[in-house]
Amino acid sequence: MKDLIEKINAEFETFKTESQSLIEKGVKAAGPRARKSTLELEKLLKEFRKVSVEESKK
């Protein structure tokens, strides 16, 4: 679970960096990288929910 949370935090930092590059600096290539990061976050958050529910049942 701790590993998963670290992955989520790292991916969120990637998203934050890329989205700031897109908005503040106008780096167009950062847009696809930010969108890719959101897809990865979605997967990780679904996994977190699954693990969290399993842990609460113990």
Pattern of helices and strands: HH
Biggest sheet details: none
| Alpha-beta classification | mainly alpha
How much of the residues is beta strand, in percent?
Answer: under 5%
> Given the structure, what is the number of helices?
2
Q: From the structure provided, what is the oligomeric state, counting identical versus distinct chains?
A: single chain
What characteristic shape results from the CA principal axes? elongated
Structural overview:
Belongs to the histone H1/H5 family. HCT subfamily. It comes from Flavobacterium fryxellicola. This is Histone H1. Might have a role analogous to that of eukaryotic histone proteins. GO terms for molecular function: DNA binding; structural constituent of chromatin. The chain has about 60 residues and is mainly alpha-helical. It has one domain (about 1-55). The protein contains 2 helices and no strands. The chain has helices at about 1-25, 30-55. The longest helix is centred in the C-terminal third of the chain and has 27 residues, at about 30-55. The mean pLDDT is about 95.
Keywords:
single chain, 2 helices
Write a short abstract of this structure.
The chain is mainly α and 58 residues long. The protein has helices at 2-25, 30-56. The longest helix is centred in the last third of the chain and has 27 residues, at 30-56.
Secondary structure elements and pairings:
Elements: H1 2-25, H2 30-56
Helix pairs in contact: 1-2
